[in-house]
Design goal:
Layout (H helix, E strand, L loop, with lengths): L2 H6 L7 H15 L6 H12 L4 H9 L8 H7 L7 H49 L6 H45 L11 H14 L3 E8 L2 H8 L1 H18 L4 E6 L2 E7 L3 H17 L16 E7 L6 H17 L5 E3 L1
Helix pairs in contact: 2-3, 6-7, 9-10, 10-11
Amino acid sequence: MGVARAVRTADVGGDPTRQLYERIGAFLFDQRLEPDPANFAFAYYLLHDPDGPLAKAVASLTDGGVRLTKRDIETLGCEAPANASQVREKANGLVAQTQMQVEGFEDMVQAMRAETAGFGRDLAASADAIRRSGAGLEGAMFDEVSKITATMLERVHQAESRLESATREASELRSKLEEARDNARRDPLTDLPNRRAFEEAYAAQAASGGTICIAVCDVDHFKNVNDRFGHAVGDRVLKTIAETLSQLCKGQLVARYGGEEFAILFSGVDAAAARVTLDNARATVAAKRYRLRESDAPLGEITFSAGVTQVIGEEGFNTSFQRADALLYRAKDEGRNRVCID
């Protein structure tokens, strides 16, 4: 369903509230947007006023089959009160805090193990000394001291065993938390870094100095692929393009920024060199002959357009990204399947 059709679908009997709800769901599914609070609110305001300025802006942005991105929604200025990105930020903060606590617990347990092991060695040495000098003790006293010492040694060994188990569990939990933090920065479909990871990498690179460039890539007419062949085929196309970009932009950070949009952070190269690398990847994608796995029927040509810009001085991420994004739209306007540079 196109955006214009989704916006203007007429109510045909039934409960108007339910119809609006179903149209919101159809819109989110068609645009491949997550049903988070921000996107749901955006769809509500869009579909609730089909002739309003928001609907006109969306129609302009999606003309020609271009799919909305999260950035488009943020640019249009419609966010839910409880922003999903803020929720994710809090969740990531809790994970980081928990990981620090686990690391502190692990260090404490390891220190306790070391102290317990030392105490056990000292106690065993004392027991040996008592046995060697036991001839000078009365029998009953010697037996009692030996019994107490043996009991203490057994308790020390039990404590060492429990501490070893606790250390192992803490180490496993720490690994799982590290994996969770990594997953929060990785796209589950393509296994590429996601938008959050990309923006963090940009901040780190910008702080360290050196030449960096940003490229924004968008699959051409991707909506047609989903409409004709289904989302499963569309997902396979995205994975193939992700693999090609990763292979041909080796050494650079390739991320799935959202939907059918990819972003690349080039480090240590200028915009001209970045364009050569990306244009090679573009030509490789365009040269492939994509076919349906099930029937071997051709999908037709798959291409992407891109914009590349060099970061100027200490400018912020949004400034440089928006410039690259404008170059991407210029590539779309000039016929698609091309890379535009400053």
